[in-house]
Amino acid sequence: MKRRQLLRTSAIATLTATLSGSALLGCVAVGGPGTVTLSEAELNTLLARRFPLSQRVMEVADVNASAPRLTLLPERRRLALAVTLAMRERLLGKRFGGQLAFDSALRIEPSDMSLRLRDVQVQSLVMDGPAGAAADAAGGLANRVARMLAERVLEDMVIYTVDAPRAARLRQAGLAPTEVNITSHGVELTVAPASAASRSVR
Q1: pLDDT for 91-109, tens place per residue?
Q2: How far apart are CA 2 and CA 129, in angstroms?
Q3: Nearest to 99, CA basis, from 85, 81, 79, 120
Q4: Which of 28, 32, 54, 199 pairs with 150 at a CA distance of 20 to 30 A?
Q5: CA distances, 178 to each of 71, 103, 111, 170, 171 (Å)
Q6: Cα(47)–Cα(43) distance, rounded to whole angstroms?
Q7: Who's near 191: CB < 8 A, 6+ residues apart?
C-alpha cells in the first residue's frame, strides 16, 4: 500500500513538472487526487505544435489553417480559438483567405491520456479582399468549407498527450487524468485513481 502511494505521488509530480515546469500546484494527499494547471500561454504553445494544417474539404477546396490563437473563456467553461485560413478552390483555382473564429469545450481521452477539443462551434469567418458578388460567392463557399473543417478536422483535435514513459508511470501507480476544467488561471487537469470516471468540462 505504501509503495503504491509513493508511486502515485511520484507519478503526479513527474507529470506536473512536464506540463508546467513547476512544483505540483495545490496540496496533494498521499494516494489522493492532484491538480495540474496549464496556463493560457502553455496551451498556445501546445496548440501551435499542431499547425499548420492542410486539408482537402468536400473535394472542392484545399485549405491551410495556420497561426492558431487561444483564449480562455472560464465563464462559459470553453476556449475561444482563431486561425488564419488560406483556401484554393479546386475547379477554377481561385484563392482566397480569411480569419476563422470558433470556440470549443475540452475532453480527456482515457485510451491515450490526451486532451482534445470537443463540441467545436464556428463563431465567425471574416474574408479578406473587397466586397461584391464574387466575394459573396467566395464567402458562401468559405463558410461551408469552414464548417466542414470544424466538424471533420478541429473536432476531437488533440492538444496534448501524456508521453509514453510518463503515461506508463501513471498507469503503474493506478492513476490517470480523470477530469478537466477551464478556469481563469488555465486548464486544470485532475490526476486521480484511474477507476474514477473520465469527464469532460463541467
Answers
A1: 877 888 889 999 999 999 9
A2: 65
A3: 85
A4: 199
A5: 23, 22, 12, 12, 12
A6: 6
A7: 11, 12, 15, 33, 34, 35, 36, 170, 175, 176, 177, 178
What is the pTM for the complete model shown?
A: 0.77
On the question of pLDDT at 54 being above 60, the answer is yes
Structural domains of the chain ordered from first start: 2-39+160-193 (no CATH), 42-156 (3.15.10.40)
Strand pairing of 53-57 and 61-73? antiparallel
pLDDT at 141: 77
Amino acid identity, residue 163? D
Q: Dihedral sign for Cα 100, 106, 108, 109, please.
A: negative
DSSP state of 25: B
According to the model, what pLDDT value does residue 135 have? 52
- d(Cα 200, Cα 118) in Å, to the nearest integer? 8
Q: Are 122 and 100 in contact (CB under 8 A)?
A: yes
Q: Kindly give the interhelix angle for 2-20 and 164-172, rounded to the nearest 10 degrees.
A: 150
